[in-house]
Amino acid sequence: MLLSLIFSLFIGLVFDYPEQQMMPVSAHELLEAPVSWEQWLQDEARMSWWALHGWVVLEELKPNMSVWTGEIENGTEFRPLDWGMKPDLEKSIQWAFPNGTGIHLHGLDRCEVLYQRFLVNKAADKNQTNQ
């Protein structure tokens, strides 16, 4: 299902732009999507993206949110991977922290869609810069 969504997104991009403005993104790049967190961990580019965009710090918490029971290190940088957090394949996960903040991890399927959008936008920016 994810691959068909990505393929549809790619086809839409191809037919929405005049030929001279097509973005240089290969179908091969768009269709090779990891299907597990372990595969994401092996992909340096995806993990670099995930470290910045795969999660969101929550300033306001919903009532009855699950509380993170793992270790939390006090530091200046918030890094979910260092705390042993990992996304679910299909759904987002949210945890509350004792300090009144929380975290929202995007589901891995959603991360893949956002990552592919990032690649398309990056290619468009590069294409525009080169013109």
Quickly describe the structure.
The chain is mainly alpha-helical and 131 residues long. The protein is 45% helix and 9% strand.
Indicate the topology.
Elements: H1 2-16, H2 27-31, H3 37-42, H4 44-53, E1 55-58, E2 93-96, E3 102-105, H5 108-130
Antiparallel strand pairs: 1-3, 2-3
- First-last Cα distance: 35 Å
- The gross shape turns out to be elongated
Mean pLDDT: 80
H/E element sequence: HHHHEEEH
> How helix-rich are the residues, as a percent range?
40-55%
- The strand count comes to 3
| Tally of individual helices | 5
Main sheet attributes: strand count, strand direction, barrel closure = 3 strands, antiparallel
Spatial ordering of strands, largest sheet:
1-3-2
Name the beta content range: 5-15%
Q: Measured on Cα atoms, how large is the radius of gyration?
A: 18 Å
Structural class by helix and strand composition: mainly alpha
Regions with little confidence, pLDDT below 50 for 5+ residues: 17-23
